[in-house]
Structures are given as structure tokens and as C-alpha cells.
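User: Fold this; C-alpha cells only.

Assistant: Input:
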Amino acid sequence: MIDHALTQMNSSAEDEEEDEEDTFEDDTNLGGSCFHICVERDPDNPRRKQVSNTRINSRKKSHSLQIDLPATILQHFKSIGRLGDVFEYRTEALIQGKRYRVHPNYRGDGPWYDFVLVEFQLEVDVGFQPFVDENNKYPAKLLGFYRLLTSNGEGATDFHVLAHCVQYQRLDSEIYSRRSLLQRTWLYEVTAGVNPRPLYRTLGGVKSDICVRGHIFAVEENPGFHERYHTEEEKRIIVISDARKEWPSIFIGDATNERSKDSDETNSITSQE
């Protein structure tokens, strides 16, 4: 009986471990964890919507280990969804050969949300006279990859990319004046008003209309997801220059300039003598 019990325990443990694995690689280039985000009618107030999320396992059943997505992400789907809509939300995507990850608690070690450079053109041209012209490329925090499911549980073959982008910077702004060769500070996009909310954007897809241009290294001054952004500190992120691509030219350029300066000074002294 003991041997039988141990066998059952091992079998159950294996089943549970297999159930915890998130393996969703397919022709959609998506992987990681899978969530279903449902927009439903609020039972306490039928005129209002409410939203919930359920983590799904590889068998398309409710996962034995549930994780809550950030409230602001759920709020975004509540705002864009209609009653009865179900969105499929994934935490990993392969875009042009590079893997990007967004997870509320990756392998139990805490949140993981990649920062990237995105390229997109707003439908309304803001005009770049008072703003810094960034050639339509901006830092952003990836928030997820999603698609709307139909009534039969299927959806479009391509997933949309959800991100939190930064604001345009004015040429005469203090935050732009604080930039350096090694880092630059940005502010997240937020809504207007006294108590602004985060403003999230859908930026193209995973396989088509691609806006993501690669990873960057960035640090949030006040990490996490905030339902309201009362201060500049809460909106502020610092983007570090690429050590492999930009630092060599910065330091080599500085060293070259110093040598040139020293050479000019030496020549000047020689000429005076």
C-alpha cells in the first residue's frame, strides 16, 4: 500500500508539474503563459462592465496556479471590450527572431516586462516644431500580446502588441535638457486631468505591421503599475545607452577629442617657442 501511495504521489506530482508548464509555441509565434480576459456585465449594476482574467493551461483548461494580471491592464481591456468579449492574452512573443517577455510573476521570481524601442506614426500629426524629432522611434514598456476570440474560441492568426509608450518631449523642456551621452529620461504617456491614468497603446502586431524594433535597457524610477500618476517621479523612466553599440563610440570619440586637443596645445606651444 505504501508503494502504491508513493506511486500515486509521484504521478500526481508529475501531472501537476506538467500542468504548470506553459508551452504554447505554434505558428502564431506566441508562447509563455496564456490568459483569457473576459468582459462581463456587473451583477450589482447591469449597466456597467466588469473584467476578469483566468490563466489557461496547455489543455485549454483553467490553470491550477492562477495569477492576477495588473489591474491597469485589465482596466484597458475593460475600456476597449464589449460585453461578452473574450481576449486571449499571452506573455511571450517571437518578433523577427527576437523573444520578448511580459509576465506578472515570471517563474515565481516577480514581474518581468521588457522595455523596447518602438517605431510608429500617430494618425494625427502633432508637428515637430516645438518637439524633439525622434524619427518616430520611442522607448516603451511592453504589456502583453493579445487577440479577440470568437464565439467558437478561435481568433485572428496575428496578435496585437500592447505597450506603455512615452510622451513627446519639447525642445525647451527641462527633462530633455537633462539628457547625457549615457542616459536619457522620459515620461510615460498619461491621460489629461488632475488625476491622470496610464495611457496604453496597441502598436501593430507580432507577425505583421511590426512596430517593435528591439530591446533596450530602461529603469522605472518608481517601478510597477500605477492606477494614477500624481507626480513626475511616477511617470519617469531612465533609458540607458546601448553599451555594445553606443558606448564605444562615446568613449573612443572622447579619447580622440582629448588627444586632438592635447596635440593642438602641443603644436601651439612649439610654435610659440
